[in-house]
UniProtKB/TrEMBL annotation, chains A, B:
Binding-site residues, FAD: 16, 20-21, 57, 59, 70, 76, 111, 170
Record bears the keyword Metal-binding: yes
Annotated positions binding heme b: 21, 70, 170
Keywords: FAD, Flavoprotein, Heme, Iron, Metal-binding, Nucleotide-binding
Keyword Flavoprotein: yes
Top-level division of the source organism's lineage: Bacteria
InterPro entries listed in its UniProt record: Pyridox_Oxase-rel (IPR024747), Split_barrel_FMN-bd (IPR012349)
Organism, scientific name: Azotobacter vinelandii (strain DJ / ATCC BAA-1303)
Pfam families: Pyridox_ox_2 (PF12900)
Protein name: Flavin-nucleotide-binding protein
GO MF term set: metal ion binding; nucleotide binding
Length: 223, 223
């Protein structure tokens, strides 16, 4: 299933990030971690609440060696996540891999799993700066074009951050990998590529007539 | 932020599925639950392992009032999930919503969160039947075209299922919703639609020369 010998497998940053299932797809280098984190704003955060490991989809962004995400200061997620280790997972589906046997069906994908203790930002000015980075990371220069933020809006917003040090990635690319004897079996095999498509922006019907769309809006990308 | 009064909000199937954040986007009806589950094969499963709420991306499928997913019989996830309540979340990102203020930035999305105790299927024949439904659900008739499954492959595969009864959905569509006074602010607002794109299939270079691509391969859809 792989061309690497056991000695060639990279080392995980911790025992609990050590990938066991499909371990030949594992990567732990920070370059791969950052590339996957930067490819999409969508993450899924795992956090124990009321005895259940809730999985919450959320937008996030990266600055240096930390990821950030925001929500309501009054929300139960942000109250719960300071008191436990959490998991933040980012995954991108890149294709359906059609093999010659059901057992070797697969998908092409990129995923990263971050583990650790999140920190909440309490300084209001720092929160505002982080939110600006989030907005400008989606659309360059957008923060300056918006109605200036109110202090009560920053107060109502919680911003959490998590180190990207304790991370594991899985990356699968390429054609199916069948059992050698199955390559003689007469079944069509291949990959159906999947990607995100960003469509042309749809203006709000309530836009003012003399406000053109900034060209930066067209710079939004994901995938 | 909504046109509904409190009396008009639908009722959650349990206290722990009751949506509090952006509760005006919540839906609990099984029709919406099924529509979201049927739109993508990608889920994120939350399960406590080694004291951390791990979030694992996985393919899944729905049959009636249950969802199913598979993995390795030897894997730690499938050993852990029978002994605790878990969460299975499915989310689809439909657009970036650009408002006139950072506070009202949003995304259009569909998500469903299922809570409950998963069950592992132990009967090998039932497992094989479920895996057939999974493969044929992705590409109609594909199971029959594949190299027949080996008993040891079924044994090595774990199949879990979870009821969709304890579910909550969130759905956001449409243009930004700004504070009424902000509609006079001269900032461009609108939606950048996002969707999955399925690209033309790429044949495996090792395909046999006389095996054409079945037309059913083109029926794979998601989104």
């Amino acid at each position: 299933m792989t061309n690497r010998t056991d000695d060639e497998y990279p080392e995980a940053p911790s025992d609990r990030t050590h990938v066991k299932r499909y371990h030949w797809l594992a990567r732990y280098d920070q370059e791969t971690v950052k590339a996957i984190l930067d490819a999409t704003p969508l993450a899924h955060v795992g956090c124990m609440m009321n005895g259940v490991p809730f999985v919450t989809p959320t937008f996030f962004w990266r600055e240096g060696d930390r990821v950030y995400w925001h929500g309501s200061s009054a929300g139960r997620l942000f109250k719960a996540l300071e008191h436990q280790d959490i998991c933040l997972t980012v995954s991108l589906l890149d294709g359906l891999v059609i093999a010659r046997s059901a057992y070797n069906f697969n998908c092409n994908f990129r995923s990263v799993m971050l583990l650790g203790r999140a920190e909440l930002i309490s300084d209001e000015a720092v929160k505002a700066e982080k939110l600006r980075n989030f907005v400008d990371g989606l659309i360059p220069g957008e923060w300056e074009r918006l109605r200036p933020v109110h202090a009560k809006e920053i107060e109502a917003t919680a911003v959490a951050s998590l180190s990207i040090a304790e991370a594991s990635c899985k990356v699968r690319t390429g054609p199916p990998l069948d059992d050698e004897e199955d390559y003689a079996f007469p079944s069509w095999a291949g990959v159906i590529p999947i990607r995100y498509q960003v469509l042309p922006p749809e203006p709000d019907p309530r836009n003012l007539p003399d406000v053109p769309m900034p060209e930066d809006i067209l710079k939004f990308r994901l995938g």
